[in-house]
Amino acid sequence: MYSRIQEQDLLGQDPEIRRLWQRSIRGLLIVFGAVALWACDSAPQPDQVLISNVHIVDPVEGLVPDQQVLIEAGQIISVENSGTELPANPNRKVRDAAGQFLTPGLWDMHVHFVFDPALTNEMADLFLDYGITSVRDTGGDIDALAALRAQLPTPKPNIYISGPLLDGQFVVYDGTDASRPELGTPVLRPEDADATVAALQQAGADFIKIYELIRPDTYAALVAAANARNMPIASHVPLMMTADTAGPLAGSMEHLRNIELACARNWTELLEERQRRITNFTEGLGHSLRAGLHNDQRLPAIAAYDEQRCNTVLDTLTNTIQVPTLRLNTVRHLKPFLREDWPEAFATLPEATKESWTNLINLFENMPASDPAFSEWSVFLIERLLARGVPIGAGTDTPIGLGIPGYSLHTELEMLVSGGMTPQQALFAATVTPARFHDLQDDVGQIKPGMRADLLLLQNNPLTDIRRTRGIEAVMLAGQWVR
Predict the structure, then answer these.
(1) Rounded to an integer, what distance in angstroms lies between the CA atom of residue 253 and that of residue 385?
(2) Which of 218, 256, 250 is nearest to 235 (CA)?
(3) Do 298 and 374 touch, CB atoms closer than 8 A?
(4) For the segment 279-317, what is each residue's pLDDT rounded down to a tens digit?
(5) Contact at 8 Å (CB) between 413 and 469?
(6) What is the pTM of this model?
(7) 342, exposed or middle or buried, with CB in 10 Å at 0-12, 13-18, 19+?
(8) Residues near 420 by beta carbon (within 8 Å), at least 6 away in sequence
(9) Which residues contact 437 (CB under 8 A, 6 or more apart)?
(10) Which residue would you say has higher pLDDT here, 72 or 13?
(11) Which of these, 48, 191, 352, 449, could form a disulfide with 92 (CB 3.0-4.6 Å)?
(12) For the chain, what percentages of helix, strand and coil (3-state, to nearest 5) are there?
């Protein structure tokens, strides 16, 4: 190691020479230090987006006024009061959102991309137009859905797929006509369940969807196969089971269908009748079998509603998300095509879809009035779910039943509020709840550091009126403004 003794040997005893040497060394150190600092200062700064002076609408914490949200590499990296000074960055793009309101991007928990082929390729764009940044496709051909997800041009929402409806011997959505495209597939025996679920996961499914004509033993086998692979489970209540037996085994249940049977005071008689009719059904269409049971039992079950029995049923569902699809359950009675904002939204659809939907609207207009009991019961049940601590998720069944992609999710939020939810609870149902279904609650659903920057900038405060979610100023997907 270089020492002062060595220095003296090299420079001799002359003090002037020694001073010149030391001054040169100090000069070199200063130069080297300056070069190092210059190298640090000249390193490229990361691209950032700053949303300043914005009011955050958090589905958990509520309104947090006057904030600034800093975004980098698709993630939120800080959320600070508007007056907090941030380190300078020449590559930061600032959006002054004074007077505006920022929410997490919305989810639609129940859609079908391949239900209407004329609409399939348009749906992703329409979702983004309305601030829906994530969707859960709950039934369709797995290969078609996986290919669609891969091939859709960016930007596109985050798409989570289940593959086909896993049904019984007589498949409801069997492709026999345009109103029942081939969305389902049979799982005939319990011993077929493991291979079915394994193949779906291999093909790209994020979760599975179990349908109504599945047998109880096969239902249990599918649940076991999905659990073994850490795949979430969405389900209808199988007609041979009740909500309180099937529901606790699933992560979500759809449409509130068949809960009415479990809540009836004569539920055992109704269930025995269902089981008998399904067991004796040996020939025909699955759709006809299901429709006959619904038509014969749904309204009598609602008429026999027993609140004490229903409380017992709902208490088993506190870990099972209910996706009510109220806008679908009420479509024939509330007639969305009569809304003032319907024509503008309808105009964005492909011509082939507009033509077929116009025929359906005419059919609705000319049909005899039907009993609204199930529509009213669906809305009524929201308050009961809230009272018993049952989680609720926002989904629409788009595009079934005149469901315009994106537009219908905002209608669903309005209906959830009409059923008893607060606007904040409705936003929670469209952000945090679906993230929890996929175990993504640490990654998306709130406006927190470390979360994905899927965001919706609104003109007005939706906590005072949920209809204000329609007043969209901008949409951000993974840190990029896409609308």
Answers:
(1) 13
(2) 250
(3) yes
(4) 999 999 999 999 999 999 999 999 999 999 999 999 999
(5) yes
(6) 0.90
(7) middle
(8) 382, 383, 386
(9) 109, 136, 207, 232, 234, 251, 252, 321, 393
(10) 72
(11) 48
(12) 45, 20, 35
